[in-house]
Fold this sequence. Notes:
The chain is an alpha+beta fold. Helix content is 39%, strand content 20%. The N terminus is likely disordered.
Amino acid sequence: MRKFGLMAILAAPLLAPPFTATSAQAEPQMLGVVQTASAVPLHCTSGNCTAELSSICLHEQRATPTSGHPYTAFNGDAITVTGTRADGTQVSLRVADVLKFKASRGFHTVRVDVPDAVRLAHELVSLAVKVEQPLTLIPGKTGVVGSDDPLTESDIELGAGPMRATATAIVDQNNDTMHAGQILARMIDALPRHGRAEADARAGLWDTAAASHVPSHSDVGVHKAHTAYNRCYRQTRIGDKNLRGCLAEAHDGLVLDLNEKYWDAVKAGS
């Protein structure tokens, strides 16, 4: 999150200290989830099926969401959830009934979750989501009473309307950058959340997690993602830094670059 005027000099968004108890009561930013060029597979472990989706901050001046902060879809019909049975039959699931949204890494990614019980109940071998149209998320309540900066109806209408339209033109439609981010996200999903992946998994990650998405993504986006993977693979072959963390930094850097262009466009038009 950036600040206007003098605050932009005094506080860098990625290095800012934790929010105080007072600021933590403010409702965080609305988020825009970027349209996906291909279906996103969910990975099922420990009773939950999950994936990360690239997202941006629509309200620069509001607090960045903490990891796990719940969100609800303003336009839930923009995203679909599809399951596949062993015989290849596909089943469409109602988003409102099965899909949950949570902030993952600041405003850069959103985690989507479907209980594994849903997969088992429908006899599905796999689940996938696809963001078909620009998706807007509204921060959910966390039980904090007396928010000192609540989102108003006009805030939501502005964020989901003109501001989301501006973000769509600058972010969603920038295929080269956002397609690179989406391929990086698929590799991030395939890696363990904690610790280091096995050597074979790291070396074969592009083929197992990224290659199947290549045909639907721009050539420049694929090249950017492959370059980032090769760099991160080399940098994390030894040492404490893991491949997932390096790829996450690369993904978030791509998102931030376009998010800043969106912020500048919103301010120029205000």
